[in-house]
Please model this.
Amino acid sequence: MPSLQEVLAYAERAGLAPWRATDWFHEMEGCGWLDYKHRPIVKWRSVLDRLRVKWEADGRPCNRQHRLPPRPGGGRPAGGRDREDRQERKGA
Model:
């Protein structure tokens, strides 16, 4: 399997952000270089190319923190419904 330096060098040539390539490398290291169906990764460059295509389709997010900001008041309660939601269901 490749080293982090090999992945970063290939990612630079392919146009993939270094943070995304590093994140992918550590994910692969953590799962033993298996894909989502638990098959061994044979051609890692092809997998990294596919990751780049998906990343571009997502709008090339600039960092890992691609989340919505928290709602005012701390968000929804544990049940997943607000008081207003419950009142609407009751017809109030």
User: Anything to note?
Assistant: The chain has a mean pLDDT of 80. The longest helix spans residues 44-57. The chain is about 50% helix and 0% strand. Residues 4-57 form one domain.
